[in-house]
Amino acid sequence: MSAPAFDPLPDLLIAVPVVIAACRAGAGLFRRLGQPPVIGEITLGILLGPSLLGWLSPSLQHWLFPPEVLPYIGALGNLGLLAFMFLVGLELDLSALRGHSRSAVAVSQASIALPLALGSLLALGMYGTFAPEGVGRLPFVLFIAVSMSITAFPVLARILSDRGMYTTRLGSLAMACAAVDDVTAWCLLAVVAAVGASGSLQDAAMTALWSVVFLVVMLWVVRPLLAKAAERASRAVESTVLVVLFTGLCLSAFVTDRIGIHALFGAFLFGVVTPRGSRTVEISAARMRAFTVPVLLPLFFVNTGLKTDIALLNGDPSQWLWAAAVLAAAAFGKWGGSTAAARLAGESWRDAMSIGALMNCRGLTELVALNLGLQLGVIGPSLFTILVLMALITTAVTSPALNWFRRVPVSDDPPEASAHSQNLPATSQPLPATSSHRPAQSSPSGV
Asked: Residues 386, 313: contact at Cβ < 8 Å?
């Protein structure tokens, strides 16, 4: 007689509300401390894993998250992540580049180039210690380099909105830099995913070819069809539009997963090609966000936390030295590169350092990239833990650093930059008042 099939539902009915409540409590607590709520959600996800709960009470953690249930938690969390990536793509509007295109491109590329260079050098030294068995030097170095160069576009938008800086000149420039940075980083991650998932150069070339074909289809076929559909969406039932959007992001994610560049890229690209300005699309996206961000996305945080074990670093003191080196290279590369480029572009020291602090914010976007690297087998658990800690720390210092730079006068600002050092409204055309430019409403979790 065969054993009865395992039913995950009873365990999920305990684990899911515990995770949601814990992450909401963490988000609220850290928000009171002046931090983006995502810091609290990431922290609570780590604390529910082996780093704290599993260390204090392994039996309690095993009861709350039995091994048989973890795949289901991961699947639900990844589904929420795909919806979130769609929303990120929908909110990514390059109209913020108006009036700032040259400065934005210069700052964003410098904020990517320097971390890429430092990350590559660091990865070459880390390869023998941290690279999993069978992983080539090229995908390992590429992944570490790209992970150093990421900026969290949604978290940055929420920080600027909470501080009333979203429509200022500095805020517009920072958003433009982050938009260019985001597009570049996701393209680089797609390359890393293609190289990491392919067994040969021929496989990588075929993956790249199919990726280009898919991109062309999305831009030249799917996007016009969605635009035409959006024109008639006002006469459609809103629930139907929500179903179409969710189905579209799932199918797009499925295609990129089959191509070999991970499902999240398909969801992100579907969000990019979805037309903006349609009230029905905005309402449907808001409804999707209202459920996936507070309910499903915390499951992704705890799934990440269950893979993060700080105890892995305690066995060898050199691991903490590598962790310090990763943090220093990430912060210096991103913050230093952005600040130097902004200063050379004519910004005051105060504004340049503020832009550097904002571009150094990594947040959830970094966690997405790190989980991708772990899933592809490019990095192992120890390095995953180090990079998660780096993402948490660099995001946590953003708000305090911004408070300092906007409060303390900088004596060597040039006179002609004095207007820039104030939070004056942007002189360029303001951002359109669509849902994709309302981060306070569109990203209630601060991610």
From this structure: yes
* H or E, element range at 387: helix 381-396
Question: Hey, what are 348's tokens?
Answer: 């005051």
CB atoms within 10 A of CB 102: 11
Distance CA 178, CA 254 (A): 27
Q: What is the distance between the alpha carbons of residues 224 and 208, in angstroms, rounded to a whole number? A: 24
Least confident of 171-175, 321-325, 344-348: 171-175
Q: Do 51 and 308 meet the contact criterion of CB atoms below 8 Å apart?
A: yes
What's the pLDDT band for 445 if we cut at 50, 70, 90? very low
A 10 A CB-CB count for 381 gives 14
DSSP string, 158-172: HHHHHTT-TTBHHHH
Q: How many angstroms separate the first and last alpha carbons of the chain? A: 49
- What tokens were used for 388? 């998660």
Q: What is residue 428's three-state secondary structure?
A: coil
Cα separation of 420 and 205, whole Å?
46
Distance CA(310)–CA(381), nearest Å, equals 10
Taking the CB of residue 201, how many other CB atoms lie within 10 A of it?
9
pTM: 0.80
Cβ(24)–Cβ(295) below 8 Å = no
Nearest-angstrom CA–CA distance, 41 and 19: 10
